[in-house]
Amino acid sequence: MTRASQLVQRPDGAFALVAEVNDGERNRNQILFATSDTVDGAYQGKGPPERINGRTTGDHSVFVDGDKAHLVYVADASSTDISTMVNVTPLTGDWTSVGPAVYSEWYAHKEAPAIQKANGKYYLLGSGLDYWNATATSYRFVNSAEPTGRSTARPGGRSERVRAAVHHAVLDMLSESETEELTVPAID
């Protein structure tokens, strides 16, 4: 089973597609990279599906910052301990493979990880792992897409202070966009 999950335009104008491919062994995902010169063109796979840094994956996203891109993904520690790590891994220069992880958070138990940049800070967002049940969103922030030190944790939760902090972080991120008519609901 293959599912296209991210389509991003590279600095050279070509398009890179990131797809999830079932590994057939554990019913978890590997990542497949493909490229095309046009958004609606024929995509050519760039090598076989791969376990990112040796691990099967869950949810992922691609963060683009200028001419660099990073794969932000949830990785499995083992076949029975899934979605335990959140990782940030730079993509290669042609955006068709990955390098070593520059950030790994073990036992995070998060899903839907993403990075957003606002006001010179990089925010790593993720929701708690409870499948289709509602969970709190949490975030961490640093001053670089490839942090060298410890990030500042801002855990999710149901307190008014945490809801307000996440809400304001989202508003900060949106302030840098061109969006004028977007309503940001309070996060419960």
H/E series: EEEEEEEEEEEEH
Uncertain stretches of 5 or more adjacent residues: 148-159, 179-188
Number of helices: 1
Q: How does the helix and strand content classify structurally?
A: mainly beta
Q: How far is the first residue's CA from the last residue's CA?
A: 34 Å
Write the layout of secondary structure elements.
Elements: E1 2-9, E2 15-22, E3 29-36, E4 44-45, E5 57-65, E6 68-75, E7 85-90, E8 103-105, E9 110-118, E10 121-128, E11 137-142, E12 152-154, H1 160-175
Provide structural commentary.
The structure is a single chain. This protein has 188 residues and is mainly beta. It has one helix and twelve strands. Strands 1-2-3-4 form a four-stranded antiparallel sheet, with no helix packed on it. The protein has a four-stranded antiparallel sheet with strand order 5-6-7-8, with no helix packed on it. A hairpin with a 7-residue loop joins strand 3 and strand 4. The model is unreliable at 148-159 and 179-188 (pLDDT under 50).
Features:
1 helix, 188 residues, 4-stranded antiparallel beta sheet, mainly beta, 12 strands, disordered C terminus
Quick description:
The chain has one helix at 160-175, and strands at residues 2-9, 15-22, 29-36, 44-45, 57-65, 68-75, 85-90, 103-105, 110-118, 121-128, 137-142, 152-154. The chain is mostly beta strands and 188 residues long.
